[in-house]
Amino acid sequence: MTITNHRARSRQLIKSLFIVCVNILAAINCFGQEKTVANIVLIVDDMGNSLELGQRAINLPGAINYAFLPYSPHRVSLANIAFRQRKEVMLHAPMSNLHSHPVGQGGLTPNMSQQQFLQTLNTNLNSVPHVRGVNNHMGSLMTQLRQPMGWLMAALKQQNLYFVDSRTTPLTVAKSTATKLGVPSLRRDIFLDNERQHDAIAMQFERLIALAKKTGIAVGIGHPHPETLKYLEKTLPTLEQRGIKLVLASQALKPVNCDHERIYCSTEIVMANLENDSPTEN
């Protein structure tokens, strides 16, 4: 092998290694930026029954999601307020449960035909303005049933809405059905206030934070109880200094955007510079 050929091969090897390094570093930088802050999707369920508590909930700082019960007396006025404050509005869709709790007006039940199911769902959606997505109210029975969950997800996909599985049963098929049908979806990780004492809420919220830091994102659901609101009013302003960011559900469901074009463009520029900087063989 001549000295000239050896130098040419060496330069090519250096350029190849450099390209690999550039792409690795760019990818680390891109994906690393997504993980520098732990994200929490916070949903306040059962909105619309109390004007005072609903307004107090909407005044909580940060990007928060509010799930409104259909036919609740204050749903329209509160949803409009939430929308004006750039919060996210969801439908809290009542569904049949295993505990014989009444689902109320607008409830989705197993004895419905597909036509009845879809008509009820659409009426519920139209009863709340500015809806971006849906989660289930109760539903420990309904979310186990594949056929109505299929009807639900097909309807949501048609209307460009997302679904959040409240996971009121470990046997739920709601999120898996959403995924199968291509509906953007999340699942609840933590209920904040099954017990409404301050210490219990605080413990659940700390679990939510720990999970968000571990996985990058966690979904918590609370309710407009006075105890919950008092805790959140005090705690939410401290999240930023702890590296926690509140995000809307629709934001959490956007695909992670890594600027691959920028990565490869920068590689091509570096290659050109290496060529220009290489000594000419005479």
Automatic annotation (TrEMBL):
GO BP annotation list: carbohydrate metabolic process
Protein name stated in the entry: Divergent polysaccharide deacetylase family protein
Native source species: marine gamma proteobacterium HTCC2143
CDD domains assigned to the protein according to its UniProt record, in alphabetical order: CE4_DAC2
UniProt-listed PANTHER family: DIVERGENT POLYSACCHARIDE DEACETYLASE SUPERFAMILY, UNCHARACTERIZED YIBQ-RELATED
Annotated Pfam families: Polysacc_deac_2 (PF04748)
Domain of life: Bacteria
